[in-house]
Amino acid sequence: MRNQGLFFPTSSRFIFSLQRALSEAIGDLIRTIRDPEKPNTLEELEVVTESCVEVQEINEEDYLVIIRFTPTVPHCSLATLIGLCLRVKLQRCLPFKHKLEIYISEGTHSTEEDINKQINDKERVAAAMENPNLREIVEQCVLEPD
To answer: Boundaries of each MIP18 family-like domain copy (predicted)?
Structure first.
């Protein structure tokens, strides 16, 4: 029985370390996404930062990944497209079971609620990716740099 008390804190530290490592790896994946309009990455424009990624354990095999990004201006017309790029990149690259939630940082966009709904709606995301013009833009944005 005494070992159970010792096991839990170690387990909690391990889970925290794993979540932090996953957050860092996810940050590395999204920082190289290119802005749809400018010749910069989302990291260079400070749309995504190290602190915008949160990973929570749902159970032993599943994780909740939350991304909060900050558009460059409160009326950014490409915020939905940026959210779509984040979603596509992570859906393709994350090697573990996950639920993905992407949000605009609170108070940083004039229509953040509407955009948050769009980029977290599977049907809308699928429909957007069926559009060849949008798909081409997304593919260019998520393309890994040489």
So the answer is: 24-89
Q: What is the CATH number of the domain that holds 51?
A: 3.30.300.130
Number of structural domains, the chain?
Answer: 1
Q: How far is the C-alpha of 36 from the C-alpha of 142, rounded, in Å?
A: 10
Report, as an integer, the average pLDDT of 115-125. 96
Is the entire prediction scored with pTM above 0.85? yes
* Average pLDDT score over residue span 60-69: 92
Q: Alpha-carbon distance 97 to 111, whole Å?
A: 30
Q: Return the HEC string of 98-129.
A: EEEEEEECCCCCCCHHHHHHHHCCHHHHHHHH
Identify whether the C-beta of residue 83 lies closer than 8 Å to the C-beta of residue 47.
no
Would you call 47 exposed, middle or buried from its count of C-beta atoms within 10 A (0-12, 13-18, 19+)?
Answer: buried
What tokens were used for 33?
């996404």
Q: Which domain, by its residues, includes 18? A: 2-142
